[in-house]
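User: Second chain of the day. Same drill as before.
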Amino acid sequence: MTEDIMMPIRQQQIIFNDDQILAVQLEDGRIFVPIRHMCEILGVGYQGQIDRIRRDPVLSKYEMQLDVARDAGRGGRQAANCLLLKFVPGWLFGISASRVREEVREKLIRFQEEVHDVIADAFRPQPDAEISPISQHVDELEAIAQMGLAIYHLARQQRAIEDRVGTLESAMWDLGTRTQEELAAVREELGTLELRLKRPPAGKISEQQAAELSQAVKLVAISLGKRSGRNEFGAIYGELYRRFGITSYRNLPVHAFEEAMEWLTSWYRSLTEGGGGTTEAAEEAMAE
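Assistant: Same format as last time:
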């Protein structure tokens, strides 16, 4: 340790929520906070913060090295870069809460708002031990109170976690129920679509029926043409369209197919009845 490193007269671990903050006090009453220790609590990089402090024209004047005892597990003492407590909030407000990890964001905000008062309260003079016999146990009682407060906050955090888990389970249950309902609806739609695909189309006649209808028209047209000496196809189709209210024989409704075939068959028979040559010509057309 160099000669310019000062030795604090008091070093204290202060419980703040779930953390223990290290702070020291010099003989003149000034209180300092080790910067590295605070960075470790907040989960921010030490080197970046110490560089930022030293670049600041105000903060750099109140940063110094002090002889600080190591924690109980490591033992010994070390020189630590510390910042005067009065300017700790100014340093902390320079750390953007939006740029730290989410799990330490709330902690950083609490430190920015409260850490100065918490540390200052811990170093306020206690009543003289000779005035009251209870005052000798102030440190122990304060530690117990801080521990109780920490347990209280821990219980609140546990309750909040349980509430969030319950909310998440409820949301997952609702999502599962909606998913099952949607799957059932999809299955129902698929079943309906499958039935529609399997069922022959309603309305118009099939290709096979259209072919039969066309052949029947052909027979009648040939038979009628034998008598009239004209091409009667247009007339036969025109009569078919007029009778059944359609614009194409392929548009004939299914329910009217039998009626149309009976009508054409009856017409054909009336034309061929007693006329052998005509019948032969009609049969020849049927075979084509």
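The first strand starts at residue 10 and ends at 16.

User: Great, on to the next one.
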